[in-house]
Amino acid sequence: MRHLALRWTLIRKFARCSQPGHIAVSLGAVLIVTTLIAAACSGLVSERPGTTSKSLGWAEKLPGEVGLSWHECELQSDIEEWKQIEICLGHPLPTQSEAERAWAAKGAAGSRELRIGQHAYNTRAIEIPYTPWSIYAFSRDSRPIKVFVSEQSGHDPDISLLSLENRAAWEYADDRRATIIYDGKDLRRVYALDAAYRPYLIAGKLIFVGRKDNSSFIVYDGRRIAPQFDRIMVAYCCEEMLYSARSGEGRYVFWGTRDGRRYIVEVAAAESTEGPIYEAKERGYLYSAQTGRQIEAMMPDWTSIGQETRPAQPPPTAAVP
To answer: pTM score, two decimals?
Structure first.
């Protein structure tokens, strides 16, 4: 903690020197200070998740086993995508309620402020003159929790700062790393992940997108939820943001790719929905399963998706795709 405080003091002194109205520092001094800051922060920002209290060895859970509903549809390339999504979900994509918007910190990226009880949480971006680098610091009551050194990219890496169940959740994502600092802990390290994205609450429990090696998946209440995906779309810029994981109104929606097929998935608390706990629409059919039944045991009910005519029914002995 003493080392972290020393690093924070160094950063604050450098920030004061770089503000307008102070004596400009020479390029050589800037490079020296930059080197010192990078070295001081290396233990914070260059680390890779290692052995932690939880790892990817923890057992996968089906949605119904943790009180979630899971609504999944395969997206067909020959049908207008937004029409398919409307048919699949049965309602528009979620938007944040007024109460959920109140979770967010005040201020713009790089200067956010969030109050939880008697504590003040802040993010601050400090540009390093004459370099493409910036320092991003997340603090509680002016004491640093996490510091990153980031190179300029297509978006500001200070993604969001939220109050989730009276715990601060800071999402940070630059071109080299993406993580969530939740209740003072880096979730990459807590769960031995390569990346963590898009924090939200369902039924008062944390849900987010996790990535490890070549797999992406949902983590809910500290449990990895099946099924996994080759990729779950998360984007912070440009047209891709239209297909990025989103949340609101108690629902968590994302686009995922698995075995070369694209899916839209909606996750919610099981008691907030009617009908099956698990539901998947794939290849023009609707499959569903009640709580406690394995996904492999699901039977088709022959509901067509995006088609005017009902597809031919496969033989009774045919395996569920």
So the answer is: 0.74
